[in-house]
Amino acid sequence: MPYSSNGQYVPWYLNRRCPIFCIPCLPIYQGIWTARLCIFITGAILFILGVTFMLGLIVTCVAIECSAYTGSILPLAFILLFLGILFLHIGWAAHLLDFEGKLPVEEDFTENIKTLNEMEQREKDVENAIFDTVREKNIPEIKQGYWQFDEKDSWQAVANPYPIQSSLKGIIPRPEY
């Protein structure tokens, strides 16, 4: 389990580290960090062009037989799609880098400790006494889900005014138990 430096648990989605499979790509992300927006937009344009070429080929080849066009433009469309996805990935990953595209070598953590003087300590004790009196009161147990109906029928039986046992009782013969 990942923990921060002060021993607190940190969930995976708040941990600011890239996945292990992206570590080989970090030099690329750092290298294009200054041009990340340009790379991202270029990738989006290339991807849109690739999709447009493919859709154009589909529409054209449905209308007429065009194997010559398809043979020349389809590889270009695939290359544009691939490059577009690659550039989008690199541009977005570079955008996610912190510290202006540099990796943090050392992390500094500071901790402030506040000491209370005698008067502040008395005020704190009075506040704690108030909270203790509230905490000592008996709070009724709030049952949730199915368990709230331990003493009564289930919510399905309560909510259905015409249960199947009552509505079909006269029609379907049922043997007694």
TrEMBL record:
Keywords: Membrane, Transmembrane, Transmembrane helix. The chain crosses the membrane at residues 39-64, 76-97. This is Protein S-acyltransferase. The lineage of its organism: Eukaryota, Metazoa, Ecdysozoa, Nematoda, Chromadorea.
